[in-house]
Task: structure prediction
Amino acid sequence: MKKIKNFFSSYPKNQKEKEHPPLRRNIKYFVSGRFLESESIRKNLPFILFITLLFVIYIYNSYKGDKKRLELENRKRQILLLKSENIAAKTLLISYTKYGQALKSAQAYDLKPTDQLPFKIFVPDTSLQKK
Result:
């Protein structure tokens, strides 16, 4: 009978696994830059640079988005302020154009409403007579 290989065990039982030396990682190891000497870092350097570029683009995009949102909120605030000023100006215009208010304003200049009906003024055309 054939022996069925266990799917989860990738190594035969009689093969010894390689013992890795203990990794000594402290602050001095990273500050000196010795971690960059490892083969896995050198192999994956293009990928690491690509991921770093993506992070920089993501941060820049987030910064620009926040700036646009702040600008949009300022514009909304300005629009609300201008709308309220417009409503106030329309209210004043309506109140000043009422007949009673117009009479009060005219009395300050000694003006009185007329009692006569309006009529047309005809001016004879003198240019036709000279020909």
